[in-house]
Structures are given as structure tokens and as C-alpha cells.
Amino acid sequence: MSYPQSIMRALAGTVAFAVIIALACNTGTTGGIYRIGKNAVYIAGEACTVNMGTERRFEDIYSDFESCADLHEEFVEESDR
Fold first, then answer.
1. What is this structure's pTM?
2. Residue 49 is part of which domain span?
């Protein structure tokens, strides 16, 4: 495989991955990925990502963390069944 072909293949893979993630986030929940508004995402049993930009109010950030904790609690309860 030539150098330009390998770059194009890597680029195509990256674009495909980005599309999958975008679709998962836009549908609310897919495969354990839960979108919490536009500033937070919960990945079931793994992680919670909350954007904490300086333009965000503390109350909004806290609310996103609380939503993540609630989703995680539900996940753990369902996993224990």
C-alpha cells in the first residue's frame, strides 16, 4: 500500500468513527452512551464527561454531575440484577 493510500484509509477510519460517535450522541442513548444536554455525556459504567467552561454557571455544572451520578446509580442497580 502506498503512502497516500494509507493516509486516505486512516482518514476514512477517523471520519467513520466521528460519525458513529456523533450519531450516538444525537440519539440520546446508544450502546450505553447517554447524552445529558449539550455539555455532558455519561458512558455506562465507565465515565462521565462534563464541560466546565468558564461561561457555565456552577449550578448547571453541578446539575450535569448529578445527572451522571443518577444514571450511574441506575446502571449499577440494573447490573446487580
1. 0.61
2. 3-79
Number of domains within the chain = 1
Nearest to 61 by CA among 40, 33, 35, 34: 40
CA distance 67 to 37: 10
Cα separation of 33 and 51, whole Å? 16
Residues 6+ apart with CB under 8 A from 32: 43, 44, 45, 46
pLDDT in tens, 15-68: 665 655 665 555 455 678 899 989 999 999 899 999 999 999 999 999 999 999
Phi (first) and psi of residue 34, to 5 degrees: -115, 120
Pairing of strands 29-30, 40-43: unpaired
